[in-house]
Amino acid sequence: MRKDWDTYFMDIAHMVSTRSRCPRRHVGAVLVQGKKLLGTAYNGAPMGVPDCSEAGCMISEAVEIVRVDGVETMVKKQRCIRTIHAEQNLLLFTDRADREGSTVYVTDEPCWTCANMLANSGVVEIVYHRSYLKDTDKVHEMMGQKGIIFRQLQAYEPPRETVAYEIP
Ligand SMILES: [Zn+2]
Ligand SMILES: [Zn+2]
């Protein structure tokens, strides 16, 4: 069966994510303008700087409020801050003119900082696969305010050869 465009570009984003060397999270993002692929990016340390596979993750620990079934609880969370996020790398490596009116496919729902930057980047549509619950409420609200189409591919299944890289 022929792949639809959503599957086609999300598959590419997942393939791109396998380039990431952070063992905690592999994220891929692609820029699409009128069915044309204009850029790819994944999360990683700046070029020429040791990455997570060489220097280990750079862990930042913070207490966060997490809401589960409407109940707020305090949870201590660890995150790797060594990498530039895929969405930010995508913005660093594409031109503003190419982004105007474009769509970004990204394997994971953008965090608040990436969402904020994407909202100011010329992109008019963001399609993601896996949820990122920490920031989802404020990200959805802001995308609504900006009028950016923000949608999740729920029934989507990534290519089998990329699944081994997924971190639960
Ligand atoms: Zn890392
Ligand atoms: Zn991010």
Automatic annotation (TrEMBL):
Pfam families: dCMP_cyt_deam_1
Annotated protein name in UniProt: dCMP deaminase
GO MF: dCMP deaminase activity
PROSITE patterns: CYT_DCMP_DEAMINASES_1 (PS00903), CYT_DCMP_DEAMINASES_2 (PS51747)
Keyword annotations: Hydrolase, Metal-binding, Zinc
Cofactor(s) in the UniProt record: Zn(2+)
Phylogenetic lineage: Bacteria, Bacillati, Bacillota, Bacilli, Bacillales
Ranges of residues in domain CMP/dCMP-type deaminase: 4-150
Top-rank lineage group of the source organism: Bacteria
Family affiliation: Belongs to the cytidine and deoxycytidylate deaminase family.
EC number(s) stated in the UniProt entry for this protein: 3.5.4.12
InterPro entries (alphabetical): APOBEC/CMP_deaminase_Zn-bd (IPR016192), CMP_dCMP_dom (IPR002125), Cytidine_deaminase-like (IPR016193), dCMP_deaminase (IPR016473), dCMP_deaminase-rel (IPR015517), Deoxycytidylate_deaminase_dom (IPR035105)
Coiled-coil residues: none
Enzyme class at the top of the EC tree: hydrolase
